[in-house]
Amino acid sequence: MPGGGIPPAALRERALISLPRGTGLSGVPERACAEAGFAPRVEFAAAAPAVLVRSAGRGLGVAVVPSGAESGADRRDGGGLRALRITGPAPNGRVSPAWRTAGPAGPAALRLLERLRAEGPGRPAP
User: Fold this and answer.
1) Residue 113's CB: how many other CB atoms inside 10 A?
2) Which helix (H) or strand (E) holds 62?
3) Which one, of 71, 70, 72, 52, lies nearest residue 62 by Cα?
4) In the chain, what percentage of residues exceed pLDDT 90?
5) What pLDDT is stored for residue 93 in this prediction?
6) Residue 6, SS3?
7) Radius of gyration for the alpha carbons in the chain, expressed in angstroms and rounded
């Protein structure tokens, strides 16, 4: 990710915009902030990471999104956004795919499942 990184403590006084509480990876920044000794001040939440990035671009706060979701944040189109990785103990979360017993039906889902199986647990995507 371009732009470098910041420790979770740097978010202490910032208004955050994040994924909704209780969903998927929303607990990751909450845990990182708790480990740094504070509760995050989430001012706005949305289920779509792209909405969070656009909201940050509109000045609503600091978007905390999964790695990869920040694409476009470093565009030099005058948007004024910069993507930074949260440093310290690297925050991480788990995403688990789920499908019908018969398996994924569509070709895109089959390719995704093949890729996930090839990468194995804990291996980053290329």
Assistant:
1) 14
2) strand 62-63
3) 52
4) 15
5) 65
6) strand
7) 16
Tell me the two tokens of residue 71: 């694409």
Token readout for 6 is 């910041």
Q: Which helix (H) or strand (E) holds 85?
A: strand 85-86
Tokens of 88: 């310290």
Which pTM value belongs to this model?
Answer: 0.64
Residue 56 CB contacts under 8 Å (≥ 6 apart), including other chains: 17, 62, 63, 73, 81
Q: State pLDDT tens for residues 42-64.
A: 998 998 888 888 899 899 999 88
SS (H, E, C) 10-57: HHCCCCEEECCCCCHHHHHHHHHHHHCCCCCCEEEECCCHHHHHHHHH
Q: Which two tokens stand for residue 4?
A: 């470098």
The count of residues in the chain is 126
- 86 beta partners: 6
